[in-house]
Amino acid sequence: MIREIEEAYHKTESALHNPHDKFFFASLRNHKIAQDALRSFLPEETLKHLDLNNMRLYHNKKITPEMREMQADIFYEIPFDDGKALLLFHCEHLSEPARIIPLKVWVYLLLALLEFAENKPNAPLPLPLPVIVYTGEKKYHYSTDFFDLFGNYQNIVRKNFNQAIQLVDVCRMDDADIRKNQLFGLCEFAFKYKKAKEFDTFCEEAIPLARIIEYEIGSDYVTLFMRYVMSIFEHGDITLFVEQAKRHLSKEAGDAA
User: Fold this and answer.
1) pLDDT of 215 above 50
2) What is the pTM of this model?
């Protein structure tokens, strides 16, 4: 595994065309140099939880060679208390500062976290620790707070990021609740019953709803729904579905069945 990581880093180093990136990349691959940098950059409160003596290079395959040709990035996996931290050194040699650098850094970090989760599905994610090394001659005057990129919405976005993501568990929704959302409810009915054998129940719920929707916003959405049902439902009585569609819906929608 260590040999594979080293080979991957050598390939990345050779892919870098910028001499500044090459120097940065080659330097920080040295553990002692990286440790010295971390002791300079990271707050003491964070450092005391890190076991720098056992840090190791981490190669993220999801960051493609094309992305690496633009930037020099070094990842380290470091023991953090009883877990792990994933540290990213990101070097920017732009002559002028760019406000989107924090976004780019978090893209790289999230790709690395995604790969970590795929390789170790039962392990908690490592603590992400980004460090930006900016070498531009002009002063970097933008915020490095990712949420500041959202302008006046930063507080709303920060709050949303700190909350659990809204989940719509369609297959466990009650039909009565689905009917409350008439437009999107058609999608929900289709997804809920796509593998179910209660096709009669599906028809009884979906066809009348499709009729209401067609009257309200036209036939395009309903036609799309009809084609989806015809192509995906495995257990349904398609003949029954077609008959009901032609009886209750417009000719355009009915002909799609």
Assistant:
1) yes
2) 0.74
Torsion from C-alpha of 93, 95, 98, 102, nearest 10 degrees: 20
pLDDT per residue as tens digits for the range 107-123: 889 988 998 999 899 99
User: Distance between CA atoms of 148 and 155, rounded to whole angstroms?
Assistant: 9
Give residues with Cβ within 8 angstroms of 37, minimum separation 6.
28, 89, 131
Q: Model confidence over 220-239: pLDDT tens digits?
A: 888 888 888 888 776 667 77
Contact present, 210 and 247 (Cβ < 8 Å): no
Q: How many residues does the chain have?
A: 257
The rounded radius of gyration (Å) of the Cα atoms in the chain is 27
Number of Cβ within 10 Å of residue 186's Cβ equals 23
Q: What one-letter code names the amino acid at 138?
A: K
Q: Tokens for 89?
A: 């050194």
| Residues 46, 107: Cα–Cα separation, whole Å | 22
As a whole number of angstroms, the distance between CA 202 and CA 236 comes to 9
> What is the edge-to-edge ordering of all strands in the sheet holding 72-80?
56-57, 72-80, 83-92, 127-134
**b/e map of 90-106 (b: 16 or more CB within 10 Å)?**
bbbeeeeeeeebbebbb
| CA 228, 231, 235, 236 torsion-angle sign | positive
* Amino acid found at 6: E
Query: What distance in Å separates the CA atoms of residue 222 and residue 252, rounded to the nearest whole number?
Result: 9
Q: How far apart are CA 67 and CA 87, in angstroms?
A: 18
